[in-house]
Amino acid sequence: MKVLFVSSGRKGFVNPIIENQGNSLRRSGIDVDFYMVSGSGWKSYVKDIKPLRKLIKEGGYDAIHAHYAFCAYLVNFAAVGLHKPLVVSLMGSDIWVHKFYPSLARMFARCAHWKAVIVKSQEMKERVGMPYAMVIPNGVDMERFCEKPKVESQESIGWNTKKLHVLFPADPELGRKNWPLAEDAVALLNGEGISGLGVSGSIELHGMKGVPNEQTPMLYNAADAVALPSFYEGSANAVKEAMACNRPLVTTDMGDCRERMDGCKGCYVANTYEVPEFAELLAKALKDGKSEGRERLLADGIADYQIARKLIEIYEQCTV
After folding, report:
1. pLDDT digit string (tens) for 233-251?
2. Are the C-beta atoms of residues 296 and 260 closer than 8 Å to each other?
């Protein structure tokens, strides 16, 4: 089976999340090609209609898998009359950023006959208002993201091994990731000291800006805890990657975090966006030292090869 992935390419490369999913399908025997939209803004999508149509006509694809709603809209215009089944993954921002985005997606899904719609969490499914949408989170490459010695990881990236380190697994400048809450929580712990941590005033907070995809597993393993207080997510990949490395972590109640982490040792979900609560949970995570996240992911079927099997079933059903 041959599948074309269509996604945004405004940064000049395929989103690592989408690339990882394509590679997991390749390992499962699916022939996957990638098409990246050449720029940002609606003009780029219009400009890509003709070249994408040419590729679809000549590529011999059994199905097209568009990631993000606007890439699906592009495919709908580019593939008019070509009768190629379209699978659409809604990723999160394409639903949450503007209140009219869900209505737009519903209209295209109905009028353009999307064969299958994938969302990343139950919260997204309710937001987009498509009862037929399938909840399938992005899978995690369990070979790349696995537990490694913490001190060795810290030494390899130059972190002080005598301090505690909290990783904010995103660019601090991305407003929706809510860096200020993580920063304020760490400042509170440093200012007051927490009994049992063995340190006072020596917790360091690290962002993850401009880090190559291949280096991210080392950062997770170097962290004493991971903190992601986002305002919204689809299904936060950083959370699952941290869990795959058995790192303790704290998040806010967004996306599928509560479903993914509830009852898992070393994983905490804050009920509010208040600094004292987030700081208290972060202190617990630091005391735990590690989580049982990897075992939980495997039990929930979130490994990349497990998700690949689900996608292949969808492709097969759409091409009958």
Report:
1. 878 899 999 999 999 999 9
2. yes
Q: Give the CA-trace dihedral at 111, 73, 25, 29, to 10 degrees.
A: 70
- Using alpha carbons, list the distances in angstroms from residue 61 to 33, 45, 57, 58, 277: 9, 21, 8, 8, 51
* Eight-class DSSP state of 112: T
Check: pTM over 0.85? Answer yes or no: no
The terminus-to-terminus CA distance of the chain in angstroms comes to 12
Using an 8 Å Cβ cutoff, are 27 and 308 in contact?
yes
35 token code pair: 């098409």
HSE, side-chain direction, 13 A CA sphere, residue 172: 11
Q: What distance lies between CA 238 and its chain's CA centroid?
A: 6
| CA 93 distance to own-chain centroid | 11
Q: 182 — phi, psi (to 5°)? A: -65, -45
| Band of residue 201 on the pLDDT scale cut at 50, 70, 90 | low
Complete DSSP assignment for 9-59: -TTSS--HHHHHHHHHHHHTT-EEEEEEESSSSHHHHHHTHHHHHHHHHHH
pLDDT greater than 60 at residue 196? no
d(CA 250, CA 189): 14
List beta partners, residue 251.
228, 269
DSSP symbols for 117-186: EEESSHHHHHHHT-TT-EE-PPPB-TTTS----HHHHHHHHT--TTSEEEE--S-TT-GGG-HHHHHHHH
138 phi and psi angles, rounded to 5 deg: -65, 140
CA distance 150 to 23: 28
